[in-house]
Amino acid sequence: MKQVFLMSAAAFLLITSTSLPNNLYAHETERSYANKKYFSGLDHEVADIVDTFHHALENGDENTVRRILADDVIIFEGGGVERSLSEYAEHHMAADMSFLKLMQSRKLEHHIKVIGNTAVSMSRNQVKGRYKNKDIDSEGMETLLLMKNENRWEIVHIHWSN
Question: Which CATH architecture has domain 2-161?
Answer without folding.
Answer: Roll (3.10)
